[in-house]
Every structure is written in structure tokens, then in C-alpha cells.
Amino acid sequence: MRLTSQQTDRAVGVLLAQAAGDALGVPYELGTTSLNGEPQMLGGGLGGIAPGQYSDDTEMAVAIAQVASTGADLRSAHALEQIAQGFLRWYADGPPDIGIQTRSVLGETARRGGGAETMRQVAAELHARTGRTAGNGSLMRTGPVALAHLGDPVAIAEAARAVSALTHADPVAQDACVLWCLAIDHAVRTGELDVRVGLTHVDAAYWAPLLDEAEQVEPSYYRSSNSWVVAALLAAWSAISRTDGLVAGLHAAVAGGGDTDTVAAIAGQLLGARYGGSAVPARYRRRLHGWPGLRSRDLVSLAALTTRGGQVTSGGWPTAARLADGYDATAAVVPHPDDPGVLLGDIGALTACSTDAVVSLCRIGTDEARTVADPADHVEFWLIDKDHANLDPAAVVLDAARTVRDLRNEGKTVLLHCVHAHSRTPIVAAAYGSLVTGAAIATSMTRVQSVLPSAHSPRRSLYRNLVQQDPSAW
After folding, report:
1. What was the pLDDT predicted at 182?
2. Which of 282, 307, 332 marks a domain boundary?
3. pLDDT over 90 (residue 444)
């Protein structure tokens, strides 16, 4: 289906917020580190994971997304074989953390030299032998399955079961994936959180009372059992249903304890589908990285291509080296009136001027994303210069302004830009000016417009909520 810009934002949020929840949960898995206050991306956990690195939860989702991003039907034998081979490549690379059940299935599949058919057989044999293969390992990776078949609940349910069955033969695990994928699909398309939309595709008599229960208890209620797929789903839903907003939901999922990275990754899928990738704070996105050498912008690209059936936009996003929208840009820059360490310009300045860090307020090409030494110092924001195209533009503007401030506090010079520096650049520059001076944003805007020749009158939908706020509260 063809998505609006808001729906696309929510779609890319599925993978991006999953990774953020995963990396936030890693340090606290099974109590390896005590949680005091808000969770932090400290790394460590059970596998010596680096700060900001996501774990097996997102790594396996990436393996699915790599196939889904080609436009493949995930129900097809070819796609399932490609996913299985992706799992095996990941396993061969020696992931620092991997679930016991998944390790058993992938290890035996590799020993037999097989692919998807062998993997399913090994998983079925394990289930027949133990009767206990309803771990949370297939639910944690299921988000990309929903993105591959948005708007088609039958296809989503079939694909969710097929991908889950590669490693998890227990029907309960497969039903959990169906339920969560259909909730993700609904949230991406409508912006609503409703985990019950998929009850007609599973055993409603089993799941409905459990969902009712999850809304009445804290996520910690499931702490001792959330390696089980049912408890993991319920813990994630408890965290989401008892909070308001993406960050609060992720924090609640981690605070619930137990298998913290997995529960937060599961919660992140649905939270991202509701609130969008633009709601994942830059302080998280800057640090995210993981197998196979991906960062936040790569996760956005995989999710966007998946929803577009593997096709790029008319301007070439997200795979073109340079986007068509910026071909007529200049290379002119001016210093911010309140801070000469911040340069204001358009997309042409990316390759023409030298700064330690870049804050991009528009889509950029793959080559344009490689203009600073440390990729964590090039921070991109989802901010569309159109009315009714953004989910929460004021929040994004403030996040961008705070990011400029953080980079400056780190001693870096910063280029702040959009395509033409007409609207987005002056708005964020004004918000940054208000942050550092305490002046009203209207005053800061006048100062920015006086030095930035390309600045237009700010687009009301991006600006109006800011002028009513007190900068001292930012």
C-alpha cells in the first residue's frame, strides 16, 4: 500500500524504536546491572555488548528486513529460504548473545548443512522432544513481517506464522507473532494502539483475558517468566498501555525487569508503529549500531524500502548517493547570530564546508551522510516541510535544537541545514537560539532571519506550537 509521510514515519519507527528499546534493555537483562533512574545505553548485559549496540533481538529482525526490503512476499519459499540463510550467516558471525532455543535450532541446522526446510524440521523435532518451544525469540524479531504486508491482515498472519516457525514450532509462539504484527499494522496505518485487532486470527478465548490482565498489572508482574513468549508480549503491552509516549513506554518495559532487552524491543516495535521514528530521541539514535555494521539511518532505510516493496522514491531516497531534491542547492553558509560555532546553510553546504558535526533536517543521500569522521556526529531528523505531514513537529524541532546544543557542549562545530534553508533550518536555528539565550522564539527567529538570506516566513504547522512555549522549560 502507498503510505503518507506520517504513516512512513510510523513504519520506520518499528525497526528504529525496537533497536532503541533493545539497546536500552541490554545492560539490565536478568539483573546484570541495577536500574537506578532512567535506563541508559550502557552496554554489557549477558554478552559484553558495546554501549548503544543492539542485541540478537534486533539483529534477527534485521535479517528479516534485509529480505523484506527487496519487496519479497515473506510467505514464499524463496523468501523464507533467504531469511533462514540470513539467520545462519548471523549465527556464523558469533553473536555475543543468543537465546538457548534459537542457538539449538540454528546450530543443528548449520551442522546438517540445511536451509529453511531443515530449520523448520529441527524446530519441529525440538518441540516434539520437549514440548516447550514457546520462547520469545520469534516475537522479538517479528516487526518487519508486518511492514512487508501492510494493509493485508491475512498475508500478515500467514507470514508471521511462517517466519516464526523457522525456529519456533509451538503454535503459541506463532500466534503471539500474529497478534503483535496485526497490532503493528493497525498502528502504522491508523496511529492507534489496539492489540486486540488480531484476536480474530488467533484463539481469542485464550488471549483476550490475558490482555485484560496485562492492563491491570505492572510489567514487573511478568519479570520471572518473560522469556516465555506469552509473558513477554503481556509485559510489553502492560508497559505500553500504562504509559503515554514512546520514551515512557520503553522505560517502563526496561523497568519491568527480567528479559529486559527483549521486552523493550518487542514494546519498541509497537511504540514505533504508533509514535513514529521521529519520536525516537536523537540521543538514542546517535548511539545505535549493530550487526551487520548498521546504524540508525540504515534501519530507517530497511524499513522504508520494505514498506515500498523495495522501490525508492522519485528523488532516489533512501538509496541514492545524492537526492534529486538538492541538485539546485548552493554551498553558502552563515554563522548563527547567537553562536558562531553553528553554521546555517542548505544541503549544498554538506560537501562544501567543514565542521565537526552535522544536523540534517531533510532526507539526504548515502554519500551526503558521510561528511564527518564519526557517524554519531551526523544526526538526521524526520521533519517534512509540508503542512499535516509530521506527527509531532514541535517535538522534533526541540529535539534537533537540543542536539545542536549537545554537540556544541561536546566542543564540536555544527552545520545545521535542510534542502534550501527556507523553513526548517531557520525554525530549528531559532529554537536553538532560544535554548542558549532564553529569549522568546519569535525574537530568536527575527535574529536568524536577519542573517540567513534564504529564510522564508516559518511554516505555521512547524512553528505555531513553539511560539506558545516558554524556552526556560525546554
Report:
1. 99
2. 307
3. yes
Residues 74 and 174 in one domain: yes
| pLDDT at residue 471 tops 80 | no
The 10s digit of each residue's pLDDT in 371-401 is 899 999 999 999 999 999 999 999 999 999 9
Residue 113 confidence class, pLDDT cut points 50, 70, 90 = very high
Q: What is the DSSP string of 446-458?
A: HHHHHH-TT--SP
How far is CA 468 from each of CA 81, 88, 149, 393, 446, rounded to the nearest angstrom?
54, 54, 41, 14, 16
- Domain match, 406 and 456 both: yes
Question: How is the chain split among helix, strand and coil, in percent rounded to 5?
Answer: 55, 5, 35
CATH of the domain at 202: 1.10.4080.10
164/166 Cα distance (integer angstroms): 5
User: What average pLDDT does the segment 217-225 reach?
Assistant: 98
Residues 6+ apart with CB under 8 A from 60: 87, 90, 102, 137, 140, 141
Range of the domain at 94: 5-307
Same-domain pairing of 298 and 332: no
pLDDT at residue 150, rounded to an integer: 98
- Kindly write down the DSSP assignment for every residue of 142-196, as one continuous string: -HHHHHHTTT-HHHHHHHHHHHHHTT---HHHHHHHHHHHHHHHHHHHHS---GG
Residue 440: CATH number of its domain: 3.90.190.10
pLDDT given for residue 458 in this prediction: 82
Alpha-carbon distance 197 to 200, whole Å? 7
Indicate whether 453 pLDDT > 70.
yes
d(CA 326, CA 369): 14
Q: Which residue bears the cell 509530521?
A: 390
For 25, residues 6+ apart whose C-beta sits below 8 A from its C-beta are: 39, 253, 254, 260, 261, 262, 263, 264, 265
What is the dihedral sign for C-alpha 16, 17, 23, 26? negative
pLDDT at 104 over 70: yes
Query: 48 is written with which cell numbers?
Result: 559484553
Domain identity same for 188 and 222: yes
Domain end, chosen from 278, 307, 336, is at 307
pTM of the model: 0.96
Could you tell me which of 383, 391, 342 has the C-alpha nearest to residue 364?
Answer: 383
